[in-house]
Each structure stands twice: as structure tokens, then as C-alpha cells.
């Protein structure tokens, strides 16, 4: 699904030198590479504060801790997402309130949010799924109307540019109170281990986030709040510093591959190619098809028999996971979410896809559909 080895070959010399430099300097934790990466990512995102952390799941948990959410508070979020988005809510004793998604963008449907708001609602967590931005203008308007926080789950869409109704632009992850991202190796901006970050324009929130991520301390051995230990190590920061200047070109390469897929599949009955909203620049963390009248599992098996990986993101939505059984949500009706989980399949998508590979993948799908 992701060819990290070939990507590494193109940046081998720079990466090896950067990693060796960290080892020779022995500044493995909170070293200069981390502070430099933080500053460079702030400049790229055009945001005041970036706080690196250990992984994207930690980023989400720390964000909710920094906002002062208490057990029993309700958080509005989509069920159609990776489990990390909602897992941290359960860990903190919060109550996830699931909202259906837009059938085109796969992101939370803003028109359905307001009806789920109660006096216990404190936060909205939109997910920029598969590399496309949620409808942030509408989400932010609802949040402002009801005095709610917004935390963006930007793990799959770093580099995506969103155009507001007034014509101004923002990078995803910078529009809410806090943005959270992951640097898992397969992400568009991935390191060679685990990593993540939070970003915010609020000085107050940034201070709280830094404290929580560092055992609740602002001064060594003086712990003002309950925190955790969540740090981006220097070797991972060094790798990310090599990749960050290439992120936009990486996203362009993904769009080029998506264009190839689009052109091939749009004429094949039973296949719907990914929707691209006019107001944001899809970065294609995943390339996900919707199938109608095509046996998805058999197609997946067919592709894998030809050496082509394919994935189903996600076969079981959060509200149907056993871990949320105690919330009594397993029987709730989310028609679009349920419809998508039965029909989506993702094809290989990464920066190193060549035309020959793309043609092979496309022809293999066509071969199955026309059999």
C-alpha cells in the first residue's frame, strides 16, 4: 500500500546523515532536531504553536485533557474513522456522540451535528478522512453558535489546503482550537517510528499542552497537573525535517496517481471514484473506491493473488465496535456510515507509484469486474 523503501532510496544520503548526527551528538530526547522541526512545521502550517509528541493517539488525548474535559462530557465525532479518534474519549471517561458522514467526502456531515448537541456537549472532533478536509466553515459556525471547542483530527490530511467561504485559505489542523496529527510511517508526512504533534494559535492552550505532554510540569520536578510522557524523539524529528520540505511534492505525486486512477475507473460501471471538494486540495492519504454490484471481498482476493495489496478502511465503524458496547450505541442508525463500510476498498497510494504499476493495478481491477 505504501512504498517506503523506494521513497527512502531517494533521500537516503540526507536521512542517514541526519540520523548519524543525532547519534553522534547523543541528544536523543528534546534535542535541537526536535526544536528545529517544531519551528519549521509552525512555518509550514502558518500557526503559532506546534507541540511534538509521541504519536497521533497521544495528540488527541492530550488535546482533550488540555481543554479540561471531564468524565461524562459529550464529544461529537464521526463513527467512520480509525478507532484512535474515539478510543481516547473512552480512556478519559468522555461520551462519544456519533454523527453520520457525508456520502461524498466521507467526513462528518455538518448538517447533522446540531441535532446531537445537548447541555453536556463540549467538543466537536471532525476527521479529515483519507486526505480530504471536512466542511470546516459549517463546523466552526455550529461550534461558535453553541460555544463548543473544535479539535481537528488531521492524521490523514497534513498538507491539505482548505479555502474558506471568504476566499482565505488555511491548512487543515489549524482551524479549530487544536489540531492533531500523526507521523506514523505510512502517513503523507511520516517518520521511521511513531510520532505526532498538536498545533494551536492559543498561548494558553499551548502552555497546557506542553505541561501535559511532559508529566504535567512546566518546571522540572514541579507537577502542576496530571500529565503523561509523550515526546517525539530526536531521530524521528531528524527524519521529519528531511521530509517536510518535500511534503507538497509528495502530495502532488499522490494527486497525480489519483488522476490516473480517476481517468481509468470513471468509465467502469459499479465503481465510484473519490469525490474532490472544490474548496479543498485533497492530498490522498488513501485512494478509496465505492463499489456497487461488485463483490468487494472477491475483488480484494483477486488483487492480492496478483501481488496487489488492497485494504478496507474501515470494515467496522466505531459505534459497532465491542469496546463501545457499554455506551449502548451498537444499534444506532448511521445509514451512510453503514453503507460505506460495506462498499469501500482502497488501492495502493503513495509517492513512488509509476505508470506501469498504476496500469497493472487498474487493468487487474477491470479484469475482475469484466470477468
Descriptive notes:
- With 371 residues, the chain is α/β, with parallel strands linked by helices.
- The protein has two domains: 4-245, 3-Layer(aba) Sandwich (Aspartate Aminotransferase, domain 2), CATH 3.40.640; 247-369, Aspartate Aminotransferase, domain 1 (Alpha-Beta Complex).
- 37% of the residues lie in helices and 15% in strands.
- The chain has helices spanning 4-25, 32-45, 56-66, 84-91, 136-145, 203-213, 234-243, 247-265, 296-305, 335-341, 355-369; strands at residues 49-53, 74-78, 95-99, 121-124, 149-153, 161-163, 169-171, 178-182, 196-200, 217-219, 222-223, 271-272, 287-291, 344-347.
CATH-derived architecture of the largest domain: 3-Layer(aba) Sandwich
Measure the end-to-end span. Answer: 25 Å
Identify the CATH homologous superfamily of the largest domain. Answer: Type I PLP-dependent aspartate aminotransferase-like (Major domain)
> How many strands, which pairing sense, and closed or not: the largest β-sheet?
7 strands, mixed
Count of helix runs? 11
Helix-strand pattern, N to C?
A: HHEHEHEEHEEEEEHEEHHEEHHEH
Gross geometry: globular
CATH topology of the largest domain: Aspartate Aminotransferase, domain 2
Descriptors:
3-stranded antiparallel sheet, 2 domains, alpha/beta, Aspartate Aminotransferase, domain 2, 371 residues, 14 strands, 7-stranded mixed sheet, 37% helix, Aspartate Aminotransferase, domain 1
Mind sketching the topology for me?
Blueprint: H1 4-25, H2 32-45, E1 49-53, H3 56-66, E2 74-78, H4 84-91, E3 95-99, E4 121-124, H5 136-145, E5 149-153, E6 161-163, E7 169-171, E8 178-182, E9 196-200, H6 203-213, E10 217-219, E11 222-223, H7 234-243, H8 247-265, E12 271-272, E13 287-291, H9 296-305, H10 335-341, E14 344-347, H11 355-369
Parallel strand pairs: 2-3, 2-4, 4-5, 5-8
Antiparallel strand pairs: 1-9, 6-7, 8-9, 10-11, 12-13, 13-14
Amino acid at each position: 500500500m505504501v512504498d517506503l523503501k523506494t521513497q527512502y532510496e531517494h533521500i537516503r544520503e540526507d536521512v542517514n546523515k541526519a540520523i548519524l548526527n543525532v547519534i553522534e551528538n547523543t541528544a536523543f530526547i528534546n534535542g535541537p532536531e526536535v526544536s528545529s522541526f517544531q519551528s519549521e512545521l509552525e512555518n509550514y502550517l502558518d500557526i503559532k504553536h506546534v507541540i511534538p509528541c509521541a504519536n497521533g493517539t497521544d495528540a488527541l488525548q492530550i488535546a482533550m485533557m488540555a481543554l479540561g474535559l471531564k468524565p461524562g462530557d459529550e464529544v461529537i465525532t464521526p463513527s467512520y474513522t480509525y478507532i484512535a479518534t474515539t478510543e481516547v474519549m473512552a480512556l478519559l471517561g468522555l461520551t462519544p456522540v456519533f454523527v453520520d458522514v457525508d456520502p461524498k467526502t466521507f467526513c462528518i456531515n455538518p448538517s447533522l451535528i446540531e441535532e446531537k448537541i445537548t447541555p453536556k456537549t463540549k467538543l466537536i472532533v471532525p476527521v479529515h478522512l483519507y486526505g480530504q478536509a471536512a466542511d470546516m466553515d459549517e463546523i466552526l459556525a455550529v461550534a461558535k453558535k453553541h460555544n463548543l471547542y473544535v479539535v481537528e483530527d488531521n492524521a490523514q490530511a497534513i498538507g491539505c489546503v482548505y479555502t474558506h467561504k471568504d476566499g482565505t485559505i488555511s491548512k487543515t489542523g489549524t482551524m479549530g482550537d487544536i489540531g492533531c496529527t500523526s507521523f506514523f510511517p505510512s502517513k503523507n508526512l511520516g517518520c521511521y517510528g511513531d510520532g505526532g504533534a498538536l498545533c494551536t494559535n492559543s498561548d494558553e492552550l499551548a502552555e497546557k499542552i506542553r505541561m501535559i505532554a511532559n508529566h504535567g510540569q512546566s518546571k522540572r520536578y514541579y507537577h502542576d497537573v496530571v500529565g503523561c510522557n509523550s515526546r517525539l524523539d530526536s531521530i524521528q524529528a531528524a527524519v521529519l525535517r528531511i521530509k517536510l520540505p518535500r511534503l507538497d511534492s509528495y502530495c502532488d505525486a499522490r494527486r497525480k496517481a489519483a488522476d490516473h486512477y480517476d481517468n481509468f475507473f470513471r468509465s467502469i460501471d459499479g465503481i465510484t471514484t473519490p469525490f474532490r471538494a472544490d474548496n479543498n486540495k485533497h492530498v490522498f492519504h488513501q485512494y478509496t473506491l465505492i463499489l456497487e454490484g461488485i463483490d468487494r471481498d472477491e475483488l480484494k482476493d483477486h488483487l492480492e493473488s496478483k501481488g496487489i495489496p488492497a485494504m478496507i478502511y474501515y470494515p467496522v465503524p466505531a459505534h459497532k465496535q465491542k469496546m463501545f458496547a457499554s455506551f449502548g450505541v451498537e444499534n444506532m442508525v448511521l445509514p451512510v456510515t453503514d453503507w460505506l463500510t460495506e462498499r469501500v476498498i482502497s488501492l495502493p497510494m503513495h509517492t513512488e507509484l509509476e505508470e506501469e504499476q498504476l496500469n497493472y493495478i487498474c487493468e487487474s481491477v477491470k479484469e475482475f469486474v469484466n470477468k
